[in-house]
Amino acid sequence: MWLRILTVFMVGIIGVSSYFIYQVWAAAEQSFDPLNRDKSDKRDKEITMEDPFTVLLVGTDVRTADAKDWRSDVLMVAAVNPKKNSIKMLSIPRDTYAAISNSNGVKTKINSAPYYGTRSQVGPMTNTVQTVENFLNIPIDYYVRINFNGFIEAVDAVGGVDVNVPFDFNMRLFYKWYSFKKGPAHLNGHEALAYVRMRKSDPEGDLGRNKRQKEVIQALMNQMTSVKTVTKVDDLLKAVGNNISHNLEMNQMIALQDTYRKIPKDRMETLEINGENSKNNPQGVWYFLVSDQERLRISTILRKQLQLPLETLDGQPYTPPQSQEPEEIDEGTEETTGTSGIN
């Protein structure tokens, strides 16, 4: 009798496991959208998830997956070093003035890269990746792109996210007002989107907005890698399949989740890119201006995290002055916040 019970139990487990595997595989296949290239031009060879790698997180300004014309509302680079169990994350403001790839030399807001990618037939996502690569002189190995609906559904699927609201403010989203009070808060999908999109009422402008974006994305990633999420896999898969695109193979997704889970919170470092907002141009367009010196500083930090040779922005060998040498964090030590723009 016990043998029969155990047999039925094992068959049930195998059946449920097979269902989950099938569902995950189908969702991954549905959202898989490779870049129009084999590897980054800034890599000598292809890498694996055991090597230091980068992921570009892109939030678009459209609500649905079938929208053809989109711009990047969020651009976040995550430089992951599995060997050191550390991540360095950088948000690039959407108004950043940059040279756009495949545009015959056009310089404008970095969030216009998808438009020029479509026009040049390179592809909107591939062109966004190449523009970020050239702006920072680092390779972008993987990307994940999500639209508004995908973000909302993903947050709801994991039961919401916990944040610490920095100050009281109101935000209108999709014809509805949302109120936020200073202090700890638990947000559903619509509330989380309103929380990360507000910038006009933030005294820090785009910088404050970027901080809230990082806070919510890290909270969402923590929820997605928790054991509790397994019970909500169906809802999460619907959000992923319909509203997210990426160039990650199934085994890479599993490796990425495993790597992220192993990294302690005190080894997740947020980099801040310094610049100034300005309308001082013939068109009176609002840009976020970043100096070449600042781009080189950020590039040096990220290249060191990726264990790549240090280079200038145009790819020449580079030795930074000792005062600007990025600090190396030893294994087992806590990261500290300095005065060099790293939070």
From TrEMBL:
Residues 325-334 have a biased composition (Acidic residues). InterPro entries: LytR/CpsA/Psr_CW_biosynth (IPR050922), LytR_CpsA_psr (IPR004474). It comes from the Bacteria. Residues 312-343 are annotated as: Disordered. It holds the Pfam family LytR_cpsA_psr. Residues 71-225 form the Cell envelope-related transcriptional attenuator domain. PANTHER family: POLYISOPRENYL-TEICHOIC ACID--PEPTIDOGLYCAN TEICHOIC ACID TRANSFERASE TAGU. Belongs to the LytR/CpsA/Psr (LCP) family. This is Transcriptional regulator YvhJ.
